[in-house]
Amino acid sequence: MEHVLEEVQTDKQFTHLKSVYLNVQTDNAAALQFYEKFGFENVKKIEGYYRRITPPDCFVLRRPLSDADADAAAPAAAAAAK
């Protein structure tokens, strides 16, 4: 994961990106802990995202690629966590 994030932050073809997003099934505690270690935050829950697994819900995790983007996203992340 560190390598992927480093590439996204340093490769010129990705300089326009402000954040990285991913989806994690709501009961996948190990994955949630793993991604939190790399700075991902839960910003949203989507109900019924998966069709063939239970539970079908997922969390959308976001990892800002710069400190400025992290500061701008903080209020939204706090609201999503409620």
Helix and strand layout, with pairings?
Layout (H helix, E strand, L loop, with lengths): L1 H9 L8 E7 L3 H8 L4 E6 L11 E7 L2 H15 L1
Antiparallel strand pairs: 1-3, 2-3
Describe this structure in words.
By secondary structure, the protein is an alpha+beta fold. It has a domain at 19-64. 39% of the residues lie in helices and 24% in strands. It has helices at 2-10, 29-36, 67-81, and strands at 19-25, 41-46, 58-64. A three-stranded antiparallel beta sheet has the order 1-3-2. It is elongated and about 40 Å long. It starts with a helix and ends with a helix. The mean pLDDT is 85.
What share of the residues lie within helices? 25-40%
Tally of strands = 3
Instruction: Give the count of helical stretches.
Output: 3
Distance between the termini: 27 Å
Strand order across the biggest sheet?
A: 1-3-2
Summarize this entry quickly.
The protein is of the alpha+beta class.
Keywords:
3 helices; 82 residues; single chain; three-stranded antiparallel sheet; 3 strands; alpha+beta; 24% strand; 39% helix
